[in-house]
Amino acid sequence: MNNEPVAWIRSGDDQLSLVKGVDDGYMVWNPLYTHPAKTLTIEEITEVSKEIFKGYKNFYHYQINFARAILKKASEKS
Asked: How far does Cα 60 stand from its chain's mean position?
């Protein structure tokens, strides 16, 4: 997983850049969006799918509910 910054912001004038500029001691480039992505294991996805589809007869009609449940589960991870 690539957890490198996706953008940089320069202190002093708040200039944004997709590449890190040179720190000159006065205006320093600070990374943005450096937090790791939240992911789910296959076991966690299976757990959610079993809960969501336990009473469903047709998977196709409930894909949206499944996707929302997966996103909710991922957002609960720390």
From this structure: 26
